[in-house]
């Protein structure tokens, strides 16, 4: 080999070293974020999720990427979105906004780690084998809001002891509709309360449901846990005021929008906990070894301004037990 060719060959190899080293560096992990909700009204939830990731030492744009997929209340979009995240080969997936996103992701992959945030009992709906030993590729946070359905009816009766007929609004597209309706009907029967069940899967359905309350002589309403309803909380608050129908919800977010009363868990903390779990999975932990997180505290929130508009005097006993009163 000629001396000049040898030197050029060595120089070319040395010049290529930095590029080769960069090419061999591990790529930034990507977390799929799939939700039934919409981005605008989920801003605080995303902040809480990022906070949880940061507690696990993961910062978006620095050492982790988040691929958001928003169904905006259209549950039929979820299977396609889940399949898209799987094709992208994301490192882990957060499925939130009720059972539908979890069902879609579980159908799309049996290997990519999944962290959920749901209101249902994850054992009862078949997502995990048990709370302490989830099994498979899935774990997460259960708000157990569905387990509080009967309690919400009791609180509404305490507020309105003379209520003759109470309505229960569900989304028939949500897998929690049937079991939660059964729980509510059993609770109503035990309390001797007449109950009617209304369904809504679209904005127009919600309008029609409220229009029918007067025809069915309902004097109060319980709104079931549902991500689509949460995205329409401003619409619900407006209709509750227009039809003067006292209503109880599962999350404080409804009350901040003008609703009357809620009883449930802290949603922001659930997203933070989910962020921590995703971070632990990114570090190498397996979902089956991470117990499902359960809330330890339930908050009763009452909006006194709304109560005044509705002409309701909140009993002192109920105010005394409230965790937050909005004036």
Please, could you describe this protein's structure?
The protein is of the alpha/beta class and 327 residues long. It has 13 helices and 12 strands. A 7-stranded mixed sheet has the order 7-6-8-9-10-11-12, with helices on both faces. Strands 2-1-3-4-5 form a 5-stranded parallel sheet, sandwiched between helices. Strand 1, helix 2 (43-55) and strand 2 (65-70) form a beta-alpha-beta unit. Helix 2 (43-55) packs across helix 11. It is elongated, with a radius of gyration of 24 Å. The model is unreliable at 6-25 (pLDDT under 50).
Q: In what range is the share of β-strand residues? A: 15-25%
N to C succession of SSEs: HEHEHEHEEHEHEHEHHEHEHEHHE
Which spans have pLDDT < 50 for at least 5 consecutive residues?
Answer: 6-25
Spatial strand order of the main sheet: 7-6-8-9-10-11-12
Oligomerization: single chain
Q: Let me know the largest β-sheet.
A: 7 strands, mixed
Strand segment tally: 12
Shape: elongated
> How far is the N terminus from the C terminus?
88 Å
Overall structural class, as computed from helix and strand content, comes to: alpha/beta
What's the overall average pLDDT, rounded?
A: 91
User: Helical residue percent?
Assistant: 40-55%
Which value, in Å, is the CA radius of gyration?
Answer: 24 Å
| Number of DSSP helical runs | 13
